[in-house]
Design brief:
The protein is α/β, with parallel strands linked by helices. Helix 1 links the parallel strand 1 and strand 2. It starts with 5 loop residues before the first strand and ends in a 10-residue tail after the last helix. The protein has one domain: Rossmann fold (3-Layer(aba) Sandwich). The mean pLDDT is 96. The longest helix has 17 residues. The protein is 36% helix and 15% strand. Strands 1, 2, 3, 4, 5 and 6 form a 6-stranded parallel beta sheet that branches. Bound molecules: flavin mononucleotide.
Length: 193
């Protein structure tokens, strides 16, 4: 049997009960019958410092290897102060750098790798974070294959801490899942409804 393709989830929040991790879990559930899904562990990645690029810290090498072997990436992120969470931006800053001194441009393993973006947050549905991320993905030559999906948390979520995805939010995410699986040629386009 052919090896399953791999999708690496990158969750922009490190919070244990993160609503974005909840979205990532929903996506994983939808994807897993068809592909392998791994969550990128970047908790130990240090703040980028050009003085300590070579040799790369072990946590950076591990992140690079996971991204390199992924057939696609899926970023699910909150918005912090109308921008990307710092930890997530930091991971992409590391990824943008060559693995050996003196090599020009972003690493070849990023080029044209498919990426999807989703995010759940307050009323603006992570609009600014998703805009910033789209721009960043372009610079890294990653390929955002479909428009990002932004979700607003139902107001009671902030009180209960319990996020139950409404049907219309599930549908928007399901559409992204279908697009990715079709792009990876795992299922035929439109066959997952
Ligand atoms: C430092 C910080 C800044 C925030 N800024 C925004 C913001 O600009 N827009 C927004 O919609 N929510 C903002 N929030 C609220 C987050 O949407 C909310 O905390 C959300 O639950 C974070 O995602 P998570 O549950 O995946 O950790 C902010 C939260 C924090 C901690």
């Amino acid at each position: 049997m052919a090896k399953k393709k791999t999708v690496v989830m990158i969750v922009g929040s490190l919070r244990a009960n993160s609503f974005n991790r909840h979205v990532a879990a929903y996506l994983t559930e939808r994807l897993e019958p068809h592909v392998e899904v791994l969550e990128l562990d970047y908790k130990q990645v240090p703040i980028f410092n050009q003085d300590f690029e070579f040799p790369a810290p072990a946590a950076v090498t591990a992140v690079r290897q996971q991204v390199q072997r992924a057939d696609a990436l899926w970023v699910v992120t909150p918005e912090y102060n109308h921008a990307l969470p710092g930890g997530l931006k930091n991971v992409f800053d590391w990824l943008s750098r060559s693995v050996e001194p003196g090599l020009p441009g972003v690493p070849a393993f990023l080029a044209h790798k498919p990426v999807l973006v989703s995010g759940v947050g307050g009323r603006n549905a992570t609009k600014y974070a998703r805009q910033a991320l789209s721009q960043l993905l372009k610079v890294l030559k990653l390929k955002e294959i479909v428009p990002s999906v932004g979700l607003s948390l139902p107001p009671e979520t902030f009180i209960t801490g319990d996020y139950v995805l409404p049907l219309e939010q599930k549908e928007a995410l399901n559409d992204q899942v279908g697009e990715l699986l079709a792009a990876l040629k795992v299922v035929r386009k439109g066959s997952l409804r």
